[in-house]
Amino acid sequence: MADVDALTTILLRERLAGTCLPEDPTDVVLPPGSERWPADIRRQLSTALTPAGVLIPVFERNGALSVLLTQRSAHLKHHAGQVSFPGGRMETGDRDIAQTALRETYEEVGIRPEEVTVIGFLDPMPTVTGYAVTPVIGLVNGQAEIRVDHTEVEYAFEVPLTFFVDERNEMPSERVFRGRKIPIIEFRYDGQRIWGVTAHIFVELRKILKKTIDNE
Questions:
Q1: CB of 158 closer than 8 Å to CB of 69
Q2: Is 76 or 157 the better-scoring residue by pLDDT?
Q3: What is the SS3 assignment for 195?
Q4: Mean pLDDT of the chain
Q5: What CATH code is assigned to 4-214?
Q6: From residue 54, how far is each of 21, 41, 64, 146 by CA, in Å?
Q7: CA distance 114 to 134
Q8: Nearest alpha-carbon partner for 31 in 169, 123, 163, 100
Q9: Which DSSP state fits 90?
Q10: Beta bridge partners of 181
């Protein structure tokens, strides 16, 4: 197994340097295991989706990288009570999906756009609630102050990025959707269950980061 401790901001920048904003923010990549999902659900996840952006906020703390996640408020209409990245749907005034992610991050956790250096992107990913989510990876100034908007977020917390790079921390699971069981993957960290599109995002990011580390 690769040495996940070799992961640094320099390697992160190098590996993500070739990524770019999607030309079509609704052209999604289906999650792992989706080939076993019912055909009607697969069709729903690839048509008539609303573009959205999330930020993967990466902090460097004492030479180690961590990722900021949020616990969504329980009263929200979509994905209530779930762990997620800060983000939301694209609005008409947004220049592109990166601006969407930065705007929503500021609104939800108080990190200002100028405190984030965007270093890469992942392909758009679908949610069962009808969104096509584009992950934007950004390095956050270590002095940035987290100010949670409690109308959307219960609290924010950090997880070492190396936790998600280590495949041993990935767990098979399932969820019930429209009365049918769907295979998914999830992560468990310090009492937090990380699943759904958030887990899918970490799997796709890991593919990039593992290549980075394994090539060293």
A1: yes
A2: 157
A3: coil
A4: 87
A5: 3.90.79.10
A6: 13, 23, 22, 16
A7: 20
A8: 123
A9: -
A10: 176
Question: In the structure encoding, which two tokens stand for residue 173, read together?
Answer: 């699971």
pLDDT at position 79 is 47
What confidence tier does 87 reach under pLDDT thresholds 50, 70, 90?
very high
Taking alpha carbons only, the member of 46, 32, 34 closest to residue 170 is 32
Predicted local confidence at residue 178, as pLDDT:
64
194 vs 105: CA distance, rounded Å: 19
- The bridge status of strand 131-140 relative to strand 50-61 is parallel
**Hey, what are 39's tokens?**
């055909």
Please tell me the predicted confidence (pLDDT) of residue 5: 58
Output the furthest CA–CA distance in the chain (Å, rounded). 47
The band of 179, judged by pLDDT with boundaries at 50, 70 and 90, is low
pLDDT of residue 2: 47
| CA–CA separation, 123 and 19 (whole Å) | 9
Amino acid at 40: D
> Residue 56, SS3?
strand
Q: Residue 91: how many CB atoms within 10 A of its CB? A: 10
